[in-house]
Write a structure and sequence with these properties.
The chain has 603 residues and is an alpha/beta fold. The chain is 28% helix and 22% strand. The strands form seven sheets. Strands 23-20-24-25-19-26-27-28-29 form a nine-stranded mixed beta sheet, with helices on both faces. A five-stranded antiparallel beta sheet has the order 1-2-3-4-5. α16 links the parallel β24 and β25. It starts with 7 loop residues before the first helix and ends in a 31-residue tail after the last strand. The C terminus is likely disordered.
């Protein structure tokens, strides 16, 4: 990681800083007017939002560079460290006329009291102030042996009496203490928080030991030591061990370009820092702590051998309701995002709700978002699917319209069957970030509070423009990423209904799903419910293709034949639609009554 890493917001902040009018087109932030040539030709200047590189497309201008170039040319700040490193804005005091300090007896005596011998004190030029021998002087020399920084430390500091325990010579360039004694060829670089800690490492025979100038939270030294740090392949952080954490470690893990190690917590032996360890257990303990330093674990990766084994067939899953599909993909596994696509009007919503019904039958609470129909209509269709044709009345209006409704005798029993197991999002309009975030929050609440384990989102992508450069495209792709994360982290199944992209002559594939590969790459399973390519002898209504099955690895482009029954809105793989769900034989009585002449067991 370098001194500067491009962030998209820097481009937008630059535009705001210079008062530019802009528009975002794909991965570019385009400026109405080029800040270099101010040409009347509009939107010729653009910043790439992935890399930070910019250029003006006018041949007579041709300005190009990156965010650091813009920061320099337009006095735009990218942060203090970047400004100082690339622009050399600040001028520090020169210490060339300061004499190289020679150790004084008072300094030697104090350092010996901390376990550090005279040889090391002399070598690092530790002395005391001429006006107060109770104040230590630590001179900081760079790799060219030039004194750049001076730090003072009061040896008899008393809190409440003294103003400061440590302070620095005013307006000096901050660098690392001990740089002039280090050699990249002599092994890794050890970094401590305090100067006495780095000197403790030197006392233990560790040559490449440095310390930061202004404590664990001060990183003003980075711009001036960055190139020098780059000469080392490995950095060992030996910060203060406090409250279960090692100071300097997280920041240096992000900043240092090579391998970052740290002293193991157990090797501190209950001590706070290197100097305490030196005083309590001697130089060998310090050397051992450095020698046994371990690589910082990346929070986003782990050694493959440490990954817990899982038997796929033992992972929690449930039946899709279709035997042939279960045999192909193993059912729906918790932790999965399932994409269900198909041409408009082919019955994706109907199939999705039937998936939900089968989940409820198996004891999995199911949440529904229906963006294409009001809740009362959704319930009517849902109830018909639960009921089945035997419990549905057919009526015909005086206009000849044929309609279907659940027989009133069974409506309460059906509602009791799914009460507490099926919930629906009240507001069906999701057309901006606020709406999508509200839906995400509601889904999370239903998972945590109501125990919903299957969530069906139908059809969020309705409003998606078929334009890969649109902001809406990117926003909804980001939304799908959040759904995938929710499925994984909360161990639920999310079924997302999506439209296909515009029809093409080639065979339908994952890239033909609305949102292209950005969306299908996030999914564990991709299903397509569509018309058969050619009418077969089976005379099926639809086929269900499996375009992706990440967990099992099987696909089926020919598809499973399925049939549809209009009255019940049920879908079947055998043309048998009167399957039972369990409500049919449920007892109508919600509680038992007692005969009047029975004894009451209380007075």
């Amino acid at each position: 990681m370098g001194i500067y890493e491009f962030k998209q917001e820097d481009a937008f902040m630059f535009a705001s800083d210079i008062g530019a009018r802009t528009k975002r087109v794909g991965d570019e932030l385009q400026f109405k007017t080029c800040p270099y040539c101010n040409s009347p030709e509009t939107y010729k200047f653009a910043i790439n939002l992935r890399t930070g590189a910019f250029n003006c497309k006018r041949s007579t201008c041709g300005a190009k560079g990156n965010m650091i170039t813009l920061a320099r040319d337009f006095n735009f700040s990218l942060g203090r460290e970047v400004d100082e490193y690339f622009n050399s804005v600040r001028r520090y005091k020169s210490l060339r006329n300061y004499p190289v300090p020679k150790s004084k007896p008072e300094a030697v005596a104090y350092m010996e009291s901390r376990g550090i011998g005279k040889d090391v004190t002399d070598q690092y030029n530790i002395t005391t102030r001429k006006d107060d021998d109770r104040v230590l002087v630590f001179p900081f020399f760079d790799e060219k042996n030039q004194m750049q920084f001076i730090k003072y430390r009061k040896t008899d500091f008393v809190k409440g009496r003294d103003r400061n325990k440590e302070w620095c010579e005013e307006n000096c360039k901050p660098i690392l203490f001990g740089m002039n004694h280090c050699d990249p060829e002599a092994g890794p670089l050890v970094m401590t928080e305090g100067q006495i800690d780095s000197l403790s490492c030197a006392e233990a025979g560790i040559r490449n030991a440095v310390s930061v100038p202004t404590g664990a939270k001060g990183f003003t030294w980075v711009p001036y030591c960055w190139d020098w740090l780059g000469t080392f392949n490995t950095l060992i952080v030996f910060g203060d061990h406090e409250n279960g954490k090692i100071t300097l470690l997280e920041e240096m893990r992000l900043r240092f370009h090579g391998t970052v190690k740290h002293v193991r917590p157990e090797d501190y032996r209950g001590c706070k820092d290197a100097n305490e360890l030196l005083q309590e257990y001697g130089p060998e303990a310090v050397r051992q702590a450095v020698d046994q330093a371990v690589v910082v674990e990346d929070p986003l990766s782990k050694d493959l051998s440490e990954v817990a084994r899982k038997d796929v067939m033992k992972m929690e899953h449930f039946s899709t309701g279709f035997g042939k599909l279960d045999k192909l993909i193993g059912g729906f596994f918790l932790g999965s995002l399932v994409l269900l696509t198909g041409e408009r009007g082919h019955g994706k919503s109907t199939l999705a709700s039937q998936f939900g019904i089968y989940a409820i039958k198996q004891g999995y609470g199911t949440f529904f978002y229906s963006g294409e129909m009001p809740d009362f209509q959704f319930r009517d269709w849902f109830d018909r699917q639960v009921a089945g044709n035997r419990y549905i009345n057919k009526t015909e209006s005086n206009l000849g319209f044929v309609g279907y409704s659940v027989n009133g005798m069974y409506q309460d029993r059906i509602a009791a069957w799914y009460r507490g197991k099926a919930r629906i999002y009240e507001d069906g309009d999701i057309d901006d970030d606020a709406g999508r975030n509200a839906l995400l929050e509601t889904m999370e609440t239903n998972i945590k509070q109501y125990g919903m384990q299957v969530l069906i989102v139908d059809n969020l992508m309705t409003a998606m423009e078929d334009d890969m450069s649109s902001d809406l495209y990117r926003q909804q792709t980001a939304f799908v990423a959040k759904l995938a994360k929710m499925a994984r982290t909360m161990n639920v199944v999310i079924i997302l209904v999506v439209h296909p992209r515009k029809a093409s002559a080639k065979e339908f594939g994952n890239d033909d799903v609305m949102g292209s590969s950005n969306i299908t790459n996030l999914a564990h399973v991709v299903l397509r419910y569509t018309e058969p390519k050619e009418q077969s002898a089976q005379n099926e209504d639809r086929v269900l293709q499996t375009l992706k099955s990440r967990l099992i690895g099987r696909i089926d482009r020919d598809g499973i034949p399925l049939w549809y029954q209009e009255s019940s809105k049920r879908i079947s793989e055998s043309q048998m639609f009167d399957f039972e769900l369990g409500w049919e034989n449920a007892d109508d009585r919600s509680f038992a009554t007692v005969e009047d002449d029975e004894d009451i067991p209380f007075d």
